[in-house]
Design goal:
Elements lengths: L2 H28 L3 E5 L29 E5 L10 E3 L9
Antiparallel strand pairs: 1-2, 1-3
Length: about 90
């Protein structure tokens, strides 16, 4: 296999893995195995809207106190600067 084909296969498999993780992560959140954790999110990596933006991924600074992400239950309480929140996720259900 050529180097170019190897790179192509790596890119495709990485994209599929990330997509699969995202779907699994959202499914787990719906099943109650995940919790919302705020105060630790990198800029642009939040999972949902805040009072200052209307969409996920639009927080402009690291560690915004309103920005949250889904984490496996029990993880948030173990992180410095993190806090549990209960925010209604406005993401449309399919």
């Amino acid at each position: 296999m050529s180097n170019r084909n190897s790179l192509y296969m790596l890119a495709v498999s990485s994209a599929l893995a990330v997509g699969g993780f995202t779907v699994a992560n959202l499914a787990s959140a719906a099943d109650g195995e995940m919790e919302q954790c705020a105060g630790i999110v990198k800029a642009g990596k939040n999972d949902c809207a805040t009072s200052t933006n209307a969409c996920h991924g639009h927080v402009e600074k690291d560690a915004s106190p309103e920005a949250w992400i889904y984490l496996p239950k029990g993880t948030c309480e173990r992180l410095t600067g993190a806090r549990l929140v209960k925010v209604v996720d406005p993401t449309p259900k399919k």
